[in-house]
Structures are given as structure tokens and as C-alpha cells.
Automatic annotation (TrEMBL):
Protein name in the entry: Oxysterol-binding protein
The gene coding this protein: Osbp_1
Family: Belongs to the OSBP family.
GO MF, any single term: sterol binding
Region annotation (Disordered) ranges: 612-694
Lineage: Eukaryota, Metazoa, Chordata, Craniata, Vertebrata
PROSITE patterns listed in its UniProt record: OSBP, PH_DOMAIN
Record field: transmembrane: none
Native organism: Ptilorrhoa leucosticta
Coiled coil: 172-199
Length: 741
């Protein structure tokens, strides 16, 4: 706004005092002679010269404005506004006088016309009737001219009023917007003050109110009004329990009172969850508590983690976002309408274009999301039931902990099924962090699934690694598969974090043989290409190109139909497809982020709803995870303690399973009555989950809703949904669910 133009902020350079220098053919420098310097690079020498010229012109204008401002000062500005207002009022006054004059003339001529008409009516066709009639016509003509003049004056007045009315309306709207922002800020400050005041009272009152000492001690915040006993409830003083959300009310949550207890100052997490469930099923939440500004020495934690796998490093929640990896996996369905449109396509090649756009869209949420999701606990689940709103429902389950593996299954009533098992490994390299899907390259899996030296169990790990995503369309039977690319987080130690995607994806239609090759171009400072660029080609089984895809993984994807002329081949026609703008089809465009997303972990509209409490979910659902809920509510210290408790509980459960598996192995070897029982595998090493051949009961942990099968299409061992979850939810029978929280 104009009011803010007089202020400066860190990172800005005032053009009036800036130095613009040319470095070489494409580079130039803008500096204020002090701490701020910009090194800018144009795509060409012509483009660099255009920028330098434009900046020099803007600098000259800024210098001129600065001189005028120095000469006249604030008084001249206010005097100019006052003069403009006086001129406007003078013009409006003159227009009002014109209207008044026209009104008098109309009244005068109207009276004369009426008199002439009366005289005409009194005549009974005398000889001079012709002159009278002519006089009436003249007066009528004069009346018409005067009326037209008044109409024109009214029109001028209205145009002038409308012109200035728009300006005044704009100024009024700016004042209203500023008032609304001030009111919102004041409301947030008031709620934060209220929360801090209650927290202070709870910290000072509750320790003194132990049973048997109610009347003997006085509180700093409130004097004792009697014994804190059940016999004198009327005299007891009650305080509101700490609100679940210290920031503005985001989920229709209602505050609840809590009796002062000598054992606990907070209501339990289960009670909090029950309170938050209210009204969330009817209306999806659009806000979450803002991210607190907690400082943390990153290097002190990360310096001992170089070369280690990220899933094995104990991380505080300061690096996390309040979502689990299962919920991040479900975010792949944010643009589910692309699969809905693909299901309606009659051509398999056009359908493949939409599937490719859906593949790219799953990365759009990562462009600003530099925080790490919570590692799911073994057996943790997450459901997303959008059958009524969007026609699909989804289920994820953590089926392995080392390496981390999550199975995902989604069904849509619009005619498609999506399933995937994602296994990733992540390495911290000092400057950047690489997150790689296992099985991305045929030769890269050996280091993870290969035989451990000296273990003698190489036969357990000879099966291809999973990580394939499957999409099946019911009406056509088209079955598509693809895998994810590598994600890299840069500037881990110093600088602003930023994320890049790189690699290639091959999407295959196993029914028709059609393919789509997508290339995610890695960012390069020396490249002139658009950042985050994605290119692709859709080919038939013979290798002929039918569509060319072009776009970015964070904004949009376009499709160009390749027109092959006589004597042309596919390679010659591809550039022509880019030039033919009339053949361009927008496949996908990223939805804008919600308002104030920068304060809410850059969550999308879907991500904001994923952790909202819901009734009827399984006890293992990520929404019920206590450390994640505490972090979302801004209670990070408690979340860190709860996170350590959950991880320790998971380690104890794993040791118990391994001990049981070891005992079962000994019984199978020594007991003669168990001769028909197939041999079991020894306990798995800490870093590996055994990939045993089908039929050998060697895995000490079995997922609840997914089972491991050999995929007939890819020949991979993958966890496939075996059913039963939604039936259990309908009956509310969760007796098989483990106690993981």
C-alpha cells in the first residue's frame, strides 16, 4: 500500500541510491554501496540490456521523485490533495447550479406552454388559429431543447461523480482492509494473552491444591475460598483447561472446564481428541495452529549424522511437520480428478497423458514443504474417507520399519484403483539430503537388499525390491505402473532450504504397451531452462510419439498433440507440436495455497484436513498419535518427550517379537512333533526386514490389513490390500488392532 512505501525492510535496495554495473555479457550487479548486493544473471545479452535500461530509467524516475519530495515535503503533498479536493468541489457546485438553472427554465417554459395550450383550447377555429398553433409548437420546441440541456447536465454530473466515487471507494476499501487486519492481529494477541494467563495460573495454582491442604495455603493468583473438597463445591474455584489450540479457533473446538486436581493440571490426550472431534466431520477445517518460532542449533544435531540413514537418527520434532509419512502419501490424491477424467477417456494414449499429469502433480506439494513428516510406527494406519464428497476412499498402513515401507490402497467409484508400496532410503551428505525410492534403478538395490557380508542369508534377499505404483481403470482394464524419482533437500546446514526433484519416470500401460517417459530436469545455476522443468513423450508400442508433455512439477503440465505430416517422422514433428498453440491442452494446474500458508507449514487445503480428528477411525490411525497432536498444538517439548516414549515402546515390541520368533525356531528344530512345520528364518538383523519366499512363515511381524504377494505384472513382492478395514469400521470392531500409542 502507499502507506508502506515509505518504509524499508531487510533485503531491499533503494533505486534512487543504487549502483548498477555490468559485469559481462549476461551478468550485472545492483548494489547500495553497503551491505546489500544483488548479482543477477539474464538469459542473454539482449535480455540483460533490457533489464539494465529499465532499471536505469526507474532509477532516474526515483531520483526525480526523491528531489520533488525533498523540495515540497509533506506540506506540499497535503496542499496538492487539498487543492484537488477544492477543485472537485467547485466543479460539482457549478454543475449543481447548472441543474438549478435548467430546472427554473423548465418550470418557466412549462408554464408558458400550459398557458398557450389553454388559449388554444378556448378558441373555436377563429381565423388566427394558425398563428396560435405555430406559437405552441415553438414553445414546445423550446421546452424540449431545455429538457435536453438538463439531461446532458445530469449526465455530466453523474460521470464526474462516478469517476471520483471509484477513487473514494478504493480508498475506503483500503481503510476497511487495514481495519480488518488490525482486528485479526488484535484478536490473535488477545487469545495468546488469554492462553498465557491461563497457563500461568495453572502452573501456580495447581501444585498448591493438593488433597488435605486446600485451606492452609494461599495462591499467588487467587485467595483460597475454603477447602478444596467435595463437601464445599460451591466455594471451589475452577479454571479453564488449556485450550487445544492457542491460535484462532480452527476446528469449531469448544472450551471445556476441568476440576482442579492434585494429580494433573491437563486433561488427557484422549479427552482432548474427543473434544476436537466435534463438528469436524461436517465441515473441513481450513486452519491449524500457527507454527511456533522455536530456535534450534541444527549443526549440533546433524554433525554426528553424516553418512547415516535418516530413519535411524533420533530427530526432535523441531524438524518435523505435524503429519505422518502415511498422510503425506495420501496427499498424492489431492488431484484425484485427473484420474476421474482419465477414466472417462476412450483413447488409451489420452488416458496415459492424464495419468502422467497425476504422477507429476504428486510432487507439487513438496516445493515449499522442507519439514520432515513423522516416521510412522509399525502398524500405524491412516484412512481418508471421501466417498461422499469426491468418490474415493484411501487406506495406508506402515508394513515395515527397517527399511521404512508403507502400503497404500485407494478405490474410487469413478472407475479406478490406485495402490502402491513405497520404500525409501535417505542419506545425509552434509550439504544436502537425498531421499531415494528403493528399486529406482536395477543396480542400486544391492546395497540395501543385497547379502550382508558373512550373514549367510543371501537367499532371502534375491527378490526385486518393491516401490512400484499401480493404477488400474476398471472399464478398460488398462493397468499402469511407475516409480518415483529422487528428492533432494539442499542447504541443510547453511542457507535457505529448498527441494528439487530429479530423475526419470517410465509409465507403462501393461495392456496396450503404451509408454510415457517423463524427465525431471535437475536444477542448475548455469542452465537457461525453466526451474523444476518436466518433459515427456507418450508413445505407442511401436515407439511412435503421439503426445509431447511439457511443464513444471510445481505449477502445471501441458500436452501437445504431435501432427505427423507426409514424409515426416516423429522426431521432425516434435518441435512442431510445441509451436502449434492450438493443439495445447492444459492437463493440470496447481491449486493456490490457503491464506497464511507460510505460518501453517505451507500445507495445502487437503493437508490442513488430514490430521483433523474424526470419529470411528482405528486406534492405530495417525490422527490419534499423541506426539504428532502435541506438536500440532504447539507443545513441542511435550511432543519430544512423547516421541521418545513411543519409539522406546516400539523397540520393546520389536525385541519381544524377535524373542518369540527365536523361541519358535528352536522349537521347530528340536521338537520331533513339529517335523511337518516348515523351517523358520532366524531373527532379522536390526537394519533389515527379511524378504522371504512365499509360504515360509519367517517374518515375525505381519501387517493387519495388507498381505505380501507376488505381483503378476511386475513380478515383485508387494503388500496388497486384503480387505476387512472398512467392514471393521462399519462394525466398530477394532479388536485386532495392536496397541502402538
Amino acid at each position: 500500500s502507499k502507506a508502506e512505501m515509505g518504509h524499508t525492510c531487510r533485503g531491499t535496495i533503494n533505486l534512487a541510491t543504487a549502483n548498477i554495473t555490468v559485469e559481462d555479457s549476461c551478468n550485472f550487479i545492483i548494489s547500495n554501496g553497503g551491505a546489500q548486493t544483488y548479482h543477477l544473471k539474464a538469459s542473454s545479452e539482449v535480455e540483460r540490456q533490457r533489464w539494465v535500461t529499465a532499471l536505469e530509467l526507474a532509477k532516474a524516475k526515483a531520483v526525480k521523485m526523491l528531489e520533488e519530495s525533498d523540495d515540497s515535503g509533506d506540506e506540499s503533498v497535503s496542499q496538492t490533495d487539498k487543492t484537488e479536493l477544492q477543485n472537485t468541489l467547485r466543479i460539482l457546485s457549478s454543475k449543481v447550479e447548472d441543474l438549478s438553472t435548467c430546472n427554473d427554465l423548465i418550470a418557466k417554459h412549462g408554464t408558458a406552454l400550459q398557458r398557450s395550450l389553454s388559449e388554444l383550447e378556448a378558441l373555436r377555429l377563429p381565423p388566427d388559429s394558425t398563428d396560435k398553433i405555430k406559437q405552441v409548437n415553438e414553445r414546445a420546441t423550446l421546452f424540449r431543447i431545455t429538457s435536453n440541456a438538463m439531461i446532458n447536465a445530469c449526465r455530466d454530473f453523474m460521470l464526474l461523480a462516478q469517476t471520483h466515487g471509484k477513487k473514494w471507494q478504493k480508498s475506503l476499501q483500503q481503510e476497511r482492509d487495514q481495519r480488518i487486519r488490525l482486528e485479526e492481529t488484535l484478536e490473535q494477541l488477545a487469545k495468546q494473552h488469554n492462553h498465557l494467563e491461563r497457563a500461568f495460573r495453572g502452573a501456580t495454582v495447581l501444585p498448591a491444591s493438593t488433597p488435605g491442604t486446600g485451606g492452609s495455603s494461599k495462591d499467588l493468583c487467587c485467595p483460597a475460598k475454603g477447602d478444596l473438597s467435595d463437601e464445599d463445591d460451591d466455594n471451589n474455584e475452577f479454571f479453564d483447561a488449556p485450550e487445544i489450540f492457542p491460535m484462532p479457533d480452527v476446528m469449531g473446538h469448544k472450551r471445556t472446564g476441568s476440576n482442579i486436581s492434585g494429580t494433573s493440571s491437563d486433561i488427557s490426550l484422549d479427552e482432548q481428541y474427543k473434544h476436537q472431534v466435534e463438528d469436524t466431520k461436517k465441515e473441513k477445517r481450513t486452519r491449524i495452529p500457527y507454527k511456533p518460532n522455536y530456535s534450534l542449533n541444527l549443526w549440533s544435531i546433524m554433525k554426528n549424522c553424516i553418512g547415516k540413514e535418516l530413519s535411524k537418527i533420533p530427530m526432535p520434532v523441531n524438524f518435523n511437520e505435524p503429519l505422518s509419512m502415511l498422510q503425506r502419501l495420501t496427499e498424492d490424491l489431492e488431484y484425484h480428478e485427473l484420474l476421474d477424467r482419465a477414466a472417462r477417456c476412450e483413447s488409451s494414449l489420452e488416458q496415459l497423458c492424464y495419468v502422467a499429469a497425476f504422477t507429476v502433480s504428486s510432487y507439487s506439494t513438496t516445493v515449499f514443504r522442507t519439514s520432515k513428516p513423522f516416521n510412522p510406527l509399525l502398524g500405524e494406519t491412516f484412512e481418508l474417507d471421501r466417498l461422499e464428497e469426491n468418490g474415493y476412499r484411501s487406506l495406508c498402513e506402515q508394513v515395515s520399519h527397517h527399511p521404512p515401507a508403507a502400503a497404500h490402497h485407494a478405490d474410487s467409484k469413478h472407475g479406478w484403483t490406485l495402490r502402491q508400496e513405497i520404500k525409501i532410503t535417505s542419506k545425509f551428505r552434509g550439504k544436502y539430503l537425498s531421499i531415494m525410492p528403493l528399486g529406482e534403478h536395477p543396480g542400486s538395490a544391492g546395497g540395501i537388499f543385497g547379502t550382508a557380508r558373512g550373514s549367510g542369508r543371501g537367499s532371502q534377499h534375491r527378490f526385486p525390491p518393491s516401490g512400484t505404483i499401480h493404477c488400474v481403470f476398471h472399464s478398460s482394464g488398462n493397468h499402469y505402473t511407475w516409480k518415483k524419482v529422487t528428492t533432494t533437500v539442499h542447504n541443510i546446514i547453511v542457507g535457505k532450504l529448498w527441494i528439487d526433484q530429479s530423475g526419470e519416470i517410465e509409465i507403462v500401460n501393461h495392456k496396450t504397451g503404451d509408454k510415457c517417459n517423463l524427465k525431471f530436469v535437475p536444477y542448475s545455476y548455469f542452465s537457461r531452462d525453466v526451474a523444476r522443468k518436466v518433459t515427456g513423450e507418450v508413445t505407442d508400442p511401436s515407439g511412435k510419439v503421439h503426445f509431447v508433455l511439457l511443464g513444471t512439477w510445481d505449477e502445471k503440465m501441458d500436452c501437445y498433440k504431435v501432427q505427423v505430416g507426409t514424409g515426416d517422422n516423429g522426431a521432425e514433428a516434435r518441435p512442431r507440436a510445441h509451436e502449434a498453440e492450438d493443439s495445447r491442452v492444459l492437463l493440470w494446474k496447481r491449486n493456490p495455497l490457503p491464506k497464511y500458508a507460510e505460518n501453517m507449514y505451507y500445507f495445502s487445503e487437503l493437508a490442513l484436513t488430514l490430521n483433523a480428528p474424526e470419529n470411528g477411525t482405528a486406534p492405530t490411525d495417525s490422527r490419534r498419535r499423541p506426539d504428532q497432536r502435541l506438536m500440532e498444538n504447539g507443545r513441542w517439548d511435550e511432543a519430544n518427550a512423547e516421541k521418545q516414549r513411543l519409539e522406546e515402546k516400539q523397540r520393546l515390541s520389536r525385541k519381544r517379537r524377535e524373542a518369540e520368533a527365536a523361541r519358535a525356531t528352536e522349537d521347530g528344530e528340536e521338537g520331533p512333533s513339529h517335523g511337518d512345520v516348515p523351517p523358520r528364518c532366524p531373527p532379522p538383523p536390526p537394519a533389515l526386514t527379511p524378504l522371504c519366499p512365499p509360504g515360509t512363515p519367517c517374518d515375525p511381524y505381519k501387517p493387519l490389513w495388507f498381505e505380501r504377494k507376488k505381483d503378476p505384472v511386475t513380478q515383485e513382492l508387494a503388500h496388497v490390500y486384503k480387505g476387512g478395514y472398512w467392514e471393521s469400521k462399519e462394525k466398530q470392531d477394532w479388536s485386532l488392532c495392536p496397541d502402538i500409542f
